[in-house]
Specification:
four-stranded parallel beta sheet, single chain, six-stranded parallel beta sheet, alpha/beta
Length: 373
């Protein structure tokens, strides 16, 4: 009887076969890339990887049930061909734009840069892209937010203050079941994915630090009254004064609008007084930097004649001299994490509804104990 068993395979034959296949793949990739004028297409990737275009499409759409060996082969061929899927074409097929919007009103350019960088960091390597939508006033946008978002063909939107707290905007988005995430809201934290901080506690810490230095006459430059953060930061300031047994002097509070210009005008009012404060707590770094300039205009030295502190820890806090004592608000981290939550929501993946980031007191050269007068 003839032996039906197959003879043992040469252990090296599998390796030789694999190398031959790899060599053929490399030749195909080299052939495609030889035409430098031609941009690689899905057909080129499919040809180089020796798979169907449907398989390539399934790999780049992250569809399940694609064998790992095929997925790796497709991704390797795509990388060597410098192939990038056409986002717009994919959007037309799936009726998706893969565009996320970032709405902001904040006039501080330093704050806005941190917002954008945080969102862009999360989108690095993703199929989604970011569209920045500055608005003059969220009040004007309220009631027509869906028109703005639909005109931009967005899949979802990230709301920064004060839009993240505006009841009209939130109501309209919920009415149309439009995906959104919120940065630094101060109320209704159960609505949509939220990434926030405790402005009251952070402001209280800064005020306590100034009190510990020996300042009892502290001026405040408030932010834009339409931003809930301004009220929260004033609350923290007043709570710290009350806990220290000190009364509040309303005449030591000047209105600003989170802009350098408004901070300069407010600081001049505070420092032109005969009984000027020994310290100024500006509710953002742009206004704190302006207060330093106002002090110089009046021939005052910071911090010898007046201490100045800010809020946010934006780039300007380290550029001016003296560098500004401030509260580090993790704007970058909040924007990145809000973007992450929005993507998870769009992809129907699990995410945390609420994430709280901790603010940190950053002590620099703009504050010191008060000089005796």
């Amino acid at each position: 009887m003839q032996n039906s068993q197959k003879e043992p395979r040469n252990p090296g034959s599998a390796y030789v076969g694999y190398c031959a296949e790899e060599l053929e793949d490399q030749r195909e990739i080299a052939r495609i890339m030889s035409d430098s004028r031609k941009r690689a297409t899905i057909i080129d990737v499919a040809t180089a990887a020796n798979v169907s275009t449907k398989t390539v499409s399934r790999v780049f759409n992250d569809e399940p049930h694609v064998r790992k060996i095929l997925r790796d082969k497709v991704l390797k061929a795509a990388a060597e061909l410098d192939y990038h899927p056409n986002i717009m074409a994919r959007g037309l097929v799936g009726r998706r734009s893969y565009l996320l919007g970032l709405i902001y009103e904040n006039p501080s350019p330093n704050y806005v840069v941190e917002l954008q960088n945080g969102a862009l960091d999360r989108l690095h390597g993703e199929k989604y892209r970011l569209l920045v939508l500055p608005v003059q006033s969220v009040v004007e946008v309220s009631g027509k937010i869906m028109s703005v978002l639909r005109a931009a063909a967005l899949d979802g939107v990230i709301l920064s203050p004060p839009a993240s707290d505006h009841p009209g905007i939130l109501s309209e988005l919920r009415q149309y079941d439009f995906p959104f995430a919120r940065i630094a809201p101060t109320q209704s934290l159960d609505i949509g994915p939220c990434r926030t901080t405790d402005d009251i506690e952070a402001s209280r810490k800064m005020t306590e630090y100034l009190l510990e230095l020996g300042h009892t006459r502290i001026g405040v430059i408030k932010g834009d009254p339409t931003h809930p953060s301004s009220g929260a930061r004033l609350t923290g300031f007043l709570e710290a004064l009350k806990a220290a047994g000190l009364s509040h002097s309303p005449d030591l509070v000047e209105q600003g609008y989170y802009t350098y210009e408004s901070g300069l005008a407010a600081a001049h009012k505070l420092l032109n007084r005969t009984d000027r404060p020994t310290a100024i707590f500006a509710q953002n770094d742009d206004m704190a930097a302006a207060a330093i300039m106002a002090a110089r205009d009046l021939g005052l030295n910071v911090p010898d004649d007046v201490s100045i502190s800010g809020f946010d820890d934006s780039a300007i806090a380290q550029i001016v001299w003296p560098r500004i004592t401030t509260v580090h608000q993790p704007v970058y981290d909040m924007a990145r994490d809000a973007t992450d939550a929005l993507i998870a929501k769009l992809e129907k993946k699990p995410f945390n509804m609420l994430g709280t980031h901790v603010c940190e007191l950053i002590i620099r050269q703009s504050t010191a104990p008060p000089a005796s007068r």
